[in-house]
Amino acid sequence: MYTVTVLESFVAQHFLTVPDAGPEGEPHSHRYEIELAFRGPELNEFDYLVDIDDVEAALDGLHSRYADTMLNDLPEFEGYNPSVERFARVVWERVTDEVTDDTVTELTVTIWEDDQAHAAYEASVPCASA
């Protein structure tokens, strides 16, 4: 199995919407580091697992979408607690919509919230040609 991993970091804000969230229930910032790990058993005709230009475009899109924003105000978090776990799922959905190489069969999105905690979402990637 091949793996290609890329990183992006930025600062964004959120507040948790669960009962008794304590200080996390107040608006605050985190330095998020997003790690995308693409996996697949085969390489394409150019001996790549994933088109790095597509990955860089997806990273640019993530940065543009989330840097210096209040996550709670974005439609993808409407009705959800903007936890780091939820954020990982949201990023997975955005990236799999943009990076569609048939050689990629799995994607793991790990998001570090500052240097203290991280969460991940991992799933099989739907085949782009289907």
From TrEMBL:
The keyword Transmembrane helix does not apply. It comes from Halorientalis regularis. Its cofactor is Zn(2+). Keywords: Lyase, Metal-binding, Zinc. SUPFAM superfamilies: Tetrahydrobiopterin biosynthesis enzymes-like. InterPro entries: 6-PTP_synth/QueD, 6-PTP_synth/QueD_sf. One of its GO terms (molecular function) is metal ion binding. This is 6-pyruvoyltetrahydropterin/6-carboxytetrahydropterin synthase. The keyword Metal-binding applies. Pfam families: PTPS.
